[in-house]
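Question:
When you can, review this sequence-structure pair and walk me through the tokens.
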Amino acid sequence: MKQKIYELTSRLNQYRYEYYILDRPTVSDVEYDSLLRELEALEAAYPMYALPSSPTKAIGYTPTAGLAKVVFEKPMMSLANAFNREEVLAFDERIHKEGFHPSYVCELKIDGIASSITYQKGLYVLASTRGDGTIGENITENVRTIDDFPKVLKLDHDLEIRGEVYMCKDVFESLNQKRLQNDEEPFKNPRNAAGGSLRQLDPSITRDRSLSLFGYTLVKPEIYGVKTQHEALRFLENCGLPVNPHYRLCKNIHEVLDYLEEWKTKRHTLNYETDGVVIKVDDFSMYDEIGVTVKNPKWAIAYKFPALEVETKLLDIIYSIGRTGTIHPNAVLEPIMIAGSLVQRATLNNVDFIKERDIRKGDIVIVRKAGEIIPEVVRVNFDRREGNLSPFNMITVCPKCGTSLIRKLEEAATYCPNEACPGRILAGLIYFASKSGMDIEGLGEKLVEQLYDQGFLKSITDVYHLKEHRDFLVTLEGLGEKSINQLLENIDKSRNNPLEKVVASLGIRLVGSKVSKLLTKHFSSLDAMMNATKDDLLMIKEIGDAIAISFTSYMKANRPLLEELKQLGINPMKEQKNQEALIFQGKTIVLTGKLEKMTREEATHLIEQYGGNVASSVSKNTSFVIAGSDAGSKKEKAEKLNVPILDEEALIRMVEACKNT
């Protein structure tokens, strides 16, 4: 048992490091919790073998060296977990045995980053992560970038609160789409995306990630005459702090159980992750007598919702290739329904992930939606493994061109280095025509593949020669005369795309839409970019060696291609708009609901084009909300805060009026 305890301690500490420090967990929460409970049971049976470094004794994580430290006057404790109805009832029974008969407050457990925030005379002055519960990391400037977080309270108080910084699901989806388009590894779930964003050394990166915050704890409530948890939540609301609106005061444990049952499925309607419910004794006067353990208060517990996981058979492992050569292993599954959608493919992350979990073709695997959004294989059900399944071996040559694959020591990804690889070229063509590229409506992935296979698209410049192949286009199923005319018209229109969009569409490694915008601020034309040196790029604060080398190398190697694009009429200059034309200058606008005439991405581009900033959540600093059909909580919050609400037509009229002045 000694060896087993040592092994579990080592494994769990590694998983904690990946979760808290790297924000890249390699096991699911369910798997971690299961192993932790196993270790707790073993340590209880064999206490002489428990190590000082055991994760059963730890709160959070030891702060890293990158951020300044903050020492808490009152420690930030973690909560013990309950995983079923019986454990919740046992929690209530323990409190009753102490002679108390409390009411409880139930609050949705937001899956984010626990943080401490301090105000002096109503002014925001300090924020910190929980760290190890005693010492946290200073994230003051990063929290300052959160739109719906007040920097000045409605009440003139010295105040310390605790809360959860989180990322909304729609923000997470958009962020991961951009990362995939840039051949960057997507975040596992909104919690890890929030953690990676909040602990950045550069606050501008945090700002771009559009985080949100809910407050839930008032430190030293007695100073303000606050005697219960539900009064504390109302007090925070009166101060102007965002509080999750779904908390409930329950008279007894039976009402608590009703609340848990209600939110087990209802939580899926929310635009943020909640993995459970925090149950707290309401009356603060009971806290001292009920007491605490080394790491947990005894007057509160966190109930964890059952994870949404299913079993199915792994039929095959196939490989896709990105435009910069990254090889992505993917699972082919026996079709299975998860959270209301049919899943046939799932990510396998990378080679290390597959080998560490000994995933093999033919296995029965557990699949879940990471963050309840992205399907992923979590682990193998080894009890159901049949026969002598062959261990996984990563392919050594590119499935598209046969070139030997490479993997750098410091990276998890495997690459095809052949720039002439058909898989890379096809992925680049698809990206060039996509909304994130030149946004050529009608030139979708399927059509690009057909034209590539037939030899009509070998390079991105061939897109602008498709009008010469009308006779072939009319032979393709689903393409009539009208749709061909529209496609060719859309291709011609794309010649007028702004400089930043053209640069992003080229598919340069590490140069996505954000970097393209940065470059456009400093270089006024494609020619200027083609002639830029590495040192020129390094003069830009946000650009480092890797981006500078990648960009200048591409420009040097692809000069003939770029010159051909210019000859085809794709040679935009940086837009120089008059200040008067920037009708949304200084305004923060939120989009919600389904728009009829534009996609969300098109509306965002239009607003940014005229000087505005598009935020993901509504706050008192929001200038106005554009609401389409089926607008939900954002519209409701705007009404509550008296933020003006406009429809899509109003947005279009404002832009048209500006064009006509």
Notes: The chain is about 35% helix and 20% strand. The chain has a mean pLDDT of 86. Residues 440-567 form a domain with the DNA polymerase; domain 1 fold (CATH 1.10.150.20). The first helix runs from residue 2 to 21.
